[in-house]
Structures are given as C-alpha cells and as structure tokens.
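Before going further, learn to read the protein records used in this course. The integers have meaning only within a learned vocabulary of local backbone shapes. To see the layout at work, look at the sequence and tokens printed below.
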Amino acid sequence: MTAPALELMTIMTDKRDSVVCIAAHAKTWDMMKKYCFNAAFRHHRDQFDLCVVVNGGDALEGQTIQDYLAPEYLVLRENTGLDQGAFDAGIKRAQGYDTYILMHYDHHFSDYNWFPYLHDLLHTSEYDVIGNIVTPPTKHLPDDYAIVAEGLGFGHLKPENFPGFLQGCAGFYKKTAIQCLLDHGGLPRGLDNNRNVACICERLQSFIMLHDGLRFGQIPPGYEKYLRHAEHI
C-alpha cells in the first residue's frame, strides 16, 4: 500500500513569541477536544501560535482542526517516526520562536493560568526545559536501546549517565533547547512506526540536550500533577 503523500497547510499571521506544537495521530480528534484543546487551553489561544502535526491524518480531519482552532501551522504527514516524527516536523516548520511548548493530543492542563505561569517560570529560571521528569532514566528501559542508539549515531549516550528524561518529550522549551535539537539534525526518530524505537528516541531526545549542557526542571508541584497525561493523575 502506498503511504499518503505529505500535505501541508499553513495560515500565515504575525508571529507571537511562543508556539505550541501538538503531536497527534489520525482519528484522535475526540481525544484532542477532551484533553489538549480543553477550555483551559483555549482560554489562552490568543497568546501563542499553534502548530498541529497529524500523523496519518486526512484532509477532512485537517479541516476539522482548522475550523476549530485555526492553527497557524497544520501539517498532515505520513505516520513515520510516530510522535518524534511529528515533533520533528513541527519544530522544523515553526522556527524562530522564543518559547516552544511540546504536547501530545492527550496532554492537558486544568489550571486556567497555565500559560502565563509556566511561561514566566521557564524564563525566570535557570532551566532550558521544564516538564515531567522520569527518574531514574533506566526505568523500564526499552529493549534494544544500545542497538538503536548506536544506529542513530548516539551510542555514546548511556542512560545511566543522566539524571532523567522528559515524559513524552512534553514541556516548555527555551529556543536554545530547540536549537540544540536542530543542530543535531532534529529529533532522533525512526523511519517507520515502531513503538519500541519511538520510546528509545523519547529518551535520546532528552539525553542529547543534557549531554550538551542544557538543564531540565520539574514542573511543580510534581510529576503529572500540573501537566497531565490523559487520566494518569
């Protein structure tokens, strides 16, 4: 079966200083509305640009998203590289921002003050990225980590040498952190939809930044208590 061709739709406006990049999949619109695009998210829609990347999405799904929130960037792409592939497409399409917020379609906030609170927290802190930090980094280490890391050119990034990694790659990033990833060719990602490889790339993304001296901070008050993932509270 031939994979769907890459489609790209962009609405050009004057850029804001922040962009939210959402990694989604085909047929997840109901989940996006329930979680990511909840009332707390929509409350601050005029304060950030929005980039939605849908792996395997079709034109009808894209039109639904466009009609609902009018994202400045809407990318419908082949389902290659899973979430890392989507985030990679997002940061390469939406360049030049001071702040990047990376989220999955089922990440969400319940606090209506989430955007100014976390934006100010990031830019008044010593951290380059704030999110939910998984510790230890060897916890539930995916099979074949060493083989995949070596194959992608990151065999020197040993999990035991780092304090942790960002859950789902989600969080608030300063532009220096995004530039670090771009300088390494973008997010590490597979060329297919292998979930085990995607889980390894999730860790590699964090390890690349930590290896280059960037600093991570946990969003208070604790793991998944502010930036939430579906019903995992």
Notes: DSSP finds eight helices and ten strands in the chain. The longest strand covers residues 165-174. Confidence is low (pLDDT under 50) at residues 1-6.
